[in-house]
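Tokens for chain A. Residues wanted.
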């Protein structure tokens, strides 16, 4: 617990974002982030706004810290929900709009999950072709597809609950190191989220998105840079029913000459993934007050 609490106490600009979020959402997100309970914080409808706001607050602290306030990004990227933080960091969506979108995204995904009963499994230690073979056998005619290509040896599959159970049981047969059921509400990034994508499209049509300019943003769905506001809106909606090509996104950035990466948000997941993608690449994790102090 205490997500973002130290950052908010140390940086008034970060605290202001939590206050703004409370007013926009109409409930005390800050209290849930800072104090819990964990069961409430971890629900899809609460966790998505909580992660977005905390990430934005850490970014604000990063920008207000004397040792880091001159650092400027050439490109931003975010995995799934993190793409909203990436767009905010690049200046193409405002905080208020990003938060409203994330809130509606979480609500729509929860509603779709309740209606479809899906699950997700992280498969460790297999390549893409073998994971696809596993999905074919495990599906037994039901939906089961690879959806998160995170790093070498880590691919998340998504589909019906029964198909995911079969895949979990079959994983060892295919040589997987392990299969880990994710604590998520449903089969994200599959056609089971089609209704959520439609809801999000409507919300995006009412959101002001600027044209990308000085800072590039790379898209989850194709590892290409967004060229227009229209592409961004389409990419965010399509993301809900399409695979997340995180490994390809990072490989594209490396190929294009990016040498230093900062993970800004309340976790260390992307730092770990990048170390699997490229061991030689410099990755700086900025996830709490201590990590910001270490940059001073």
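Reply:
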């Amino acid at each position: 617990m205490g997500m973002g609490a130290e950052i908010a106490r140390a940086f008034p600009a970060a605290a202001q974002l939590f206050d703004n979020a409370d007013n926009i959402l109409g409930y005390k997100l800050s209290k849930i982030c800072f104090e819990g309970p964990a069961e409430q914080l971890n629900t899809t409808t609460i966790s998505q706004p909580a992660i977005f706001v905390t990430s934005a607050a850490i970014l604000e602290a990063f920008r207000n810290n004397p040792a880091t306030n001159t650092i400027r990004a050439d490109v931003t990227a975010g995995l799934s929900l993190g793409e909203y933080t990436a767009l905010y960091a690049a200046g193409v969506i405002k905080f208020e709009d990003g938060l409203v979108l994330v809130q509606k995204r979480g609500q729509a995904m929860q509603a779709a999950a309740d209606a479809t009963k899906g699950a997700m499994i992280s498969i460790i230690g297999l390549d893409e072709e073998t994971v696809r073979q596993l999905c074919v056998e495990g599906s037994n005619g039901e939906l089961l597809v690879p959806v998160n290509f995170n790093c070498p040896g880590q691919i998340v599959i998504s589909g019906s609950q029964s198909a995911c159970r079969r895949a979990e049981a079959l994983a060892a047969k295919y040589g997987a190191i392990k299969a880990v059921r994710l604590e998520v509400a449903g089969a994200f990034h599959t056609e089971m989220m089609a209704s959520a994508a439609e809801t999000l499209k409507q919300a995006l049509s009412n959101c002001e998105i600027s044209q990308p300019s000085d800072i590039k943003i790379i898209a989850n769905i194709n590892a290409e840079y967004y060229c227009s506001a229209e592409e961004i809106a389409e990419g965010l909606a399509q993301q809900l029913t399409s695979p997340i090509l995180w490994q390809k996104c990072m490989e594209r950035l490396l190929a294009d000459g990016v040498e230093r990466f900062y993970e800004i948000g309340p976790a260390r997941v992307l730092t770990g993934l990048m170390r699997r993608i490229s061991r030689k690449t410099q990755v700086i994790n900025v996830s709490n007050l201590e990590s910001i102090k270490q940059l001073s």
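DSSP finds 14 helices and eight strands in the chain. Strands lie at 75-76, 118-124, 144-151, 154-160, 178-181, 216-217, 260-264, 282-286.
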